[in-house]
Request: fold
Amino acid sequence: MTDATINISSTNFRPGTSDAEIEAAAARAAAHRRHTVTFWRLAILVVFLGAWEIAGRMAWIDPFFYAMPSTIAGRLYEWITEGTSEGPLWYHLYVTMEESVLGFVTGSVAGIIIGVALGRNRMAADIFSIYIKLINSIPRVVLAPIFIMILGLGLASKVALAFVMVFFVVFHNAFQGVREADRAMIANARILGASDWQLTRSVIVPSAMSWIFASLHVSFGFAIIGAIVGEFVGSRFGIGLLINIAKGSFDAAGMYAAIVIVMVVALGAEYLMTLVENRLAKWRPQPLHETQ
Amino acid sequence: MAVEKTAPAIELINVSRRFLSPTGKSLTAIRDFTMTVGRGEFVAVVGPTGCGKSTTLNLVTGLASPSAGEVRVMGAPVKGIDPRIGFVFQTDALFPWRTVIENVMAGPLFRGKPKSQAEASARDWLARVGLARFEQHYPHQLSGGMRKRVALAQTFINGPEILLMDEPFSALDVQTRVLMHEELLRLWSEAKASVVFVTHDLEEAIALADKVYVLTAGPATVKSVYTIDLPRPRVVADIRYEQSFIDYSRTIWSDLKEEVETSYARAAA
Reply:
């Protein structure tokens, strides 16, 4: 019946290649790739920090301005074990986190609610869009002195700044996500019997969720920026205050140490967000953000 | 209510539907369109691509309203979305973030049924379409044919008296499509619903329907109506080789061909 021939001498076909062998080879290749990636990641970090340290010690760059990884690590160790000149490090970190989290939560909730509401109501969207554009064109940072003047040096002014940083990003994505919701899916839900509220809650919002999540990833970083800029301009506690004091005393290591702390916190928040998203988005064929 | 008992399931009487294009121009999708679908009747609508076939279905659902003429469902004018209507879409309209069983439960839950009842009913319908083992899967984990079966269960669970289908199987491969035809005819004969099945595939229309409406190139109006007198129950896989089927196919195609050519020439111009 068939007269097809298999060319045994060809390089693609090795006699005795079983499924198990192919799978084992693929697993080895995948592990090798993972190790290579990890190796290069570490190597680049070590080379960068090493070059910085050596450049500082050889006085190619002035350690007074640029500090050195060793002095930064020393300052971090000192802050952690003995506290800063302004009191315990943990308290400052706690204050900054409190401001960021409050601003992030209120800003994203308000952004989602107003984004979905305007996305569902074309008339309201047309009326308000001009004002949203107007307010959005203000560089957020210039609001810091205004908020501090109105709300004082405490928590409220920083939360307000973090809120406006977060709100517009989340709002735009929620709005766009609602607008992009699949028309056939909406028609299907309506014919299946969904009321307007059911349609919004169980079709529109879930389908806008991947858009909203994309904005939540960046907006926690924005909330931290809002809190720190607010502290920088005027406050009694917080990481922003530490940076400000380090700047005032020409303490380069202190400034970099504060940056390292913010980096660690922001990365931690990003990691948590990815975990939450992957849990919520288990229906998706592939996660948008890979953890590896 | 005496009128309701005897009235046909769907009547479109001299219906026209115009759209406004984004540039503000008025376009006519269908004009002077008249169609009657009796209770329990299976009607197929064929016509050239883009002639306005889907518009007729939207008018029946109440998602769109006619610019002129009248649309009646069960003897009463259409006001909003009628709960007695079920709709199967051409594209995938399942909710991708819900599992298969949650998708099928959607209709009863939207209509205020208690969760336990909806779940039991959804299980029953999934078993009927042969997907009992896939309750907890998500739509993206299923093949195209399986997703269509979920869509059928999602629609049939509401017990529709009128079933509107907009090229539901056009995205499936030929073998799967024949299986879906058998499935649909089985569900239809159990549910005794009136069906309007829009398609561009003439053989599909003849194999399934009691009546085939041929539409003109857009703006669409009814060109001719053929009654398909093939015995039921039909075996879709075999019926296409019978002489009477081939005769129907040849007659209706010669009619449809002119419209397809007109439509094609217009698109090319």
Summary: The beta strands of chain B are 10-20, 26-37, 42-46, 68-73, 76-77, 85-88, 162-166, 194-199, 211-215, 222-227. The two ends of chain B are 52 Å apart (CA to CA). The mean pLDDT of chain B is 90. Chain B touches chain A through 28 residues (CB under 8 Å).
